[in-house]
Amino acid sequence: MFDRSFFQTKLGQAAIASVAAMVAFVALTTQMYATPAMAANTMPQTVEMA
Questions:
Q1: Environment class of residue 23 by beta-carbon count within 10 Å: exposed (0-12), middle (13-18) or buried (19+)?
Q2: Half-sphere exposure of 34 (CA within 13 A, CB side)
Q3: What is the mean pLDDT of the chain?
Q4: Cα separation of 28 and 13, whole Å?
Q5: How much is the pLDDT for 31?
Q6: Is the pLDDT of residue 43 over 60?
Q7: What is the dihedral sign for C-alpha 20, 26, 32, 35?
Q8: Can you spell out the DSSP letters for the chain?
C-alpha cells in the first residue's frame, strides 16, 4: 500500500487529484442519464382551459 510519504510527493498529489477527478466525473455523469419515466414526471403539465 501507499504510505503518507508517497502522498506528500508530487506524484502522490497527482494521483490524489486524478482519483478525485474520476470520482467527480462519475458522480456528474450518472446524474445526466434519466429514464423516460423520470423525464415525463419532471416535464410541466399543461392544462387546457375550455
A1: exposed
A2: 10
A3: 80
A4: 22
A5: 73
A6: no
A7: negative
A8: ---HHHHTSHHHHHHHHHHHHHHHHHHHHHHH---HHHHHHHSPPP----
